[in-house]
Amino acid sequence: MTGFQNASYTSTCHYTLHPHTPENYLLRSFKPPEIDKHIRSTFFSGHLLPRFFFPFVSMAVKLSSCFMSHGWNCCSVNDCKHFSLRFYSSSSPRSLTVSCKTRQRSSSSQPRKPQSKKIVPSQVPQNDNFMPDDSGHSDSENTDEISNVSEKSISNDIVAIQRFDDRNSSSTLTSSIGADKGDGHSAVPLQDVIGMIRNAEKNIHILNQARIHALEDLEKILGEKEALQREINILEMRLAETDARIRVAAQDKVHVELLQDHLEKLRTEMSNRNRIPNEMQDIVLRAPDRQTRALSEELTALRNENMSLKDDLMSIKEQLNGVKRTDERVEMLEKERKVLEASLKEMEYKLTLSQDDGAQLSTLRSECETLWDKVEHLQVLLDKSTSQADQAILVLQQNQELRKKVERLEESLDNASIYKLSSEKLQQYNSLMQQKIKLLEERLERSDAEIHSYVQLYQDSVKEFQDTINNLKEESKKKASGKHVDMPWEFWSRLLLLVDAWFLEKKIHRDEAKLLREMTWRKDARIHDVYMECKDKNERDIIAAFRRLTSSSSSPGLHVIHIAAEMAPVAKVGGLGDVLSALSKALQRKGHLVEIVLPKYDCMQYESIQDLRVLDLVVESYFDGKLFKNKIWIGTVEGLPVYFIEPLHPAKLFWRGKTYGEPDDLKRFSFFSRAALELLHQAGKKPDIIHCHDWQTAFVAPLYWDLYAPKGLNSARICFTCHNFEYQGTAPASDVASCGLDVHHLNRPDRMQDHSSPDRLNPVKGAIVFSNIVTTVSPTYAEEVRTAQGGQGLHATLNAHAQKFVGILNGIDTDYWNPATDSFLKFQYNASDLEGKAENKKALQRLLGLSFSDSRRPLVGCITRLVPQKGVHLIRHAIYRSLELGGQFVLLGSSPVPNIRREFEEIARQFENHEHVRLILKYDEALSHSIYASSDMFIIPSIFEPCGLTQMIAMRYGAIPIARKTGGLNDSVFDVDDDTIPVQLRNGYTFVTPDEQGFNGAFDRAFNRFKSDNEGWQELINKVMNIDFSWDTSASQYEELYLQSVSRARAARRSAG
């Protein structure tokens, strides 16, 4: 166990400030909004330590070495993760203290270790007044004292970091305002808040002083550096002079040697001639000797001077090394100075923004008092209403008793009236009965006539039915020559793409292509046989053989074309890719022709595409007033025929290394939408349904009806599915006009004009208006987006088109997500044999370095994108709550939000070597399968969730979901303890409010059942693993919508014709 599990730590931050320092005086005009925000979040939510204190702690630790050189004393952190921080002035006679605490969760299953107490020299009560006291100090006096505050008093401030045990601390901050109105005191005085803001300003002043000292040190170091540089220059000049003198001495030495040689020659001549007297010879000899000795002495002196210069050079080199070290120190100080400047700028920015928010504190307090008065008044009214309601209940009960008595009297009167009927009334009754009999006879005659007409209609229907049977028999005879062949869908998709390629390359005619498509669609045995006979021949022979096929028949189903930005597994970013692939395969299994059009990204998974090839044609599409060429690629993905469009545009629209997230995404996908429709038009396709998805292809709907239906591409009905209404792709009208849409015609509130601005267009709104079918990914989410809170500004448009808007719950690909055949798992298993699930749990624990000694310790899994929508605050809470309840926690996911990413990276470092927690901050497909298979529970605490697939996958692998009741989660997870839900549907644990208390209610119930009812937990696992989350049901609903829309269109065309 780590220290985190064994004990609970309390972090206490004490800031002791002089009340009349200049920085505290600035409080009247600078009140940081973020400080105010954290203060309110701290005191109103129960989290006692404001986050803005942490930068001061880290800065103090980093600058401790710098402060000590200028009279600042700082103790070390000693590797303590939970500490208290105090700033105080040793020279100030009047000091004030504000204490803030925060509690870190610890495991409830482990005993707490005692810790040392913190000794506080002086502590002012929590409700002390932080304004000037009764000693007579006024604001004007505070102003006068600003100039008298010396740098010495500031430089004596000390930063002290101490451990503190929250069990020994009795001072806590109350988290509600106005909780006890009768006492006349606010639980969180405004002065406490002002004191904490003053602390922040005090620390800013401290950092400014440190910055000044650092700059002074830097100036001194630079001056020393310049002096050393001057000495170096002088030494270099001396070195150059010495070198010159050495060169002169060397030349003189050479000259002496030459003279000696010449002297020898003279001696030889003199000896030979014997003409010079001995005295003259001695004179001649003595003269060169004296010159030689003088030169030798001078040379020796030069050598000695050279040695001294070498020593000087060595000392200079040592000084240069010192200078280099000084430069490194200067660079370090410069970096620290930049950090200080950045911190100061950030804090100055916060102070600048705080003016309005600080002024609102008093306003909020007065508003709170007013609201409290209203609450008291409402309480009085409620009491009165309650008493009146009690009286009304009594009166109602009395009325019910009277009503019963009246009913009994009426019954007795009815019985009495029966016996008092006179003979005259009986006669009248008989006459009335005779009239009724006549009326009945007339009705019987009319009924006979109607029955006769119905019989006639029935006979006509039987005749029509017989004629239909005869026609079907004749058609069956015609079809007898073409039998159905059961081949994989990959074969028929490849054949269909082959036919389309021939037509686009103008190798066959339109009618021939239509005929061959229909035969391929029906899986006709004749086209199969012809292809198998000719597949080894050249293309010309294959085309000739296909042209000889002349039989034809009607299409067996619908022709559906999906235009989308994603498709799993080749281009998957989110749930859209999974939905597109699974829905297309489900419709294909139902006998419909399904084709898909995608952009050709450079970052696709090309290994998942079979038979990928480029067609020998170029499709031109309009954009920005020009025609741009597009390459068309074809291939099959998991048996589905797919067209890939590669724009030959200078901006390289889809060669960016990623699918989304580019500044010109609107340009990229509006270009693709126009090019996709141009491909369908030039290919001569006549689809029944064009299905577009999300804002990236929402342009298809208005482009189809405004531009391509008049050109002849008018056979299709448009279906638009929005997978998340948070993303709408709004843009200026001028940007939308690039793809050829008439923005003047569309920029209206009832068409594409966005609700936020009259000069912006909304592609999603345009798709809702111009589509024949509009769907989203769950029934509950469809209800939520029709409200002002969930509709993201589109609720009015959705309500106006409610007759064509429906929510269909997504499914999952049960072939891919199958624990019995999953190749990513080390041990496969199913609902009847769960031994493999336990083995997978141990394997994951070994892989991640978690403890696996206790098999009954529950493992909680979470796989998600770390964004606010997913409830990251509840995910963070779940980590610590799992440890408190004696469980393990594994998180797999990444975040595009910088502050969330940094927060979870810090948590990951905190639990890097923990035996029960592991955070993997990336996405790993293989690891995700292992986590699903190993988890006992799975959390999905989303703030909103259009559909959600993780809860379905988790149940498929036997992990019990713990989810918030929103969107698709509300349609797929039903609480096991909810008596209003049928028992057979209960499959998990749910909560409503997106806070820690609501989450704990569901989370704790799941843990209690896991630990106390093993048999019941196993039965729950068996139940969830047998739930059918396949796409069959969802695809049937889409099929029904398609057929209804197509039938209405055909009926309208027949009536118009």
Radius of gyration: 45 Å
- Flag low-confidence runs: 1-187, 478-482, 550-555
Total DSSP helices: 32
Oligomer: single chain
Number of strands: 22
Helix content: 40-55%
Strand residue percentage = 5-15%
Alpha-carbon distance between the two ends: 81 Å
Q: Any overview of this molecule?
A:
This protein is an alpha/beta fold and 1057 residues long. 53% of the residues lie in helices and 11% in strands. The chain is built from 32 helices and 22 strands. The strands form four sheets. A nine-stranded mixed β-sheet has the order 8-9-10-7-6-11-12-15-16, with helices on both faces. Strands 19-18-17-20-21-22 form a six-stranded parallel β-sheet, with helices on both faces. It starts with a helix and ends with a helix. The relative contact order is 0.05. The model is unreliable at 1-187, 478-482 and 550-555 (pLDDT under 50).
Question: TL;DR?
Answer:
By secondary structure, this protein is an alpha/beta fold.
List the helices and strands and how they pair.
Blueprint: H1 3-6, E1 10-17, H2 22-25, H3 33-45, H4 54-62, H5 64-68, E2 73-74, E3 84-88, E4 96-103, H6 139-146, H7 151-155, E5 158-162, H8 190-273, H9 278-352, H10 354-419, H11 423-479, H12 489-504, H13 510-521, H14 525-534, H15 539-547, E6 559-563, H16 575-589, E7 593-599, E8 610-623, E9 626-637, E10 640-647, H17 665-682, E11 689-693, H18 700-708, E12 717-721, E13 731-732, H19 733-736, H20 743-746, E14 760-761, H21 763-770, E15 773-776, H22 779-784, H23 795-800, E16 805-807, H24 835-848, E17 859-863, H25 872-884, E18 888-892, H26 898-910, E19 917-920, H27 925-934, E20 937-940, H28 950-956, E21 960-964, H29 967-972, E22 989-991, H30 996-1012, H31 1014-1025, H32 1032-1056
Parallel strand pairs: 1-3, 2-5, 6-7, 6-11, 7-10, 11-12, 12-15, 15-16, 17-18, 17-20, 18-19, 20-21, 21-22
Antiparallel strand pairs: 1-4, 3-5, 8-9, 9-10, 13-14
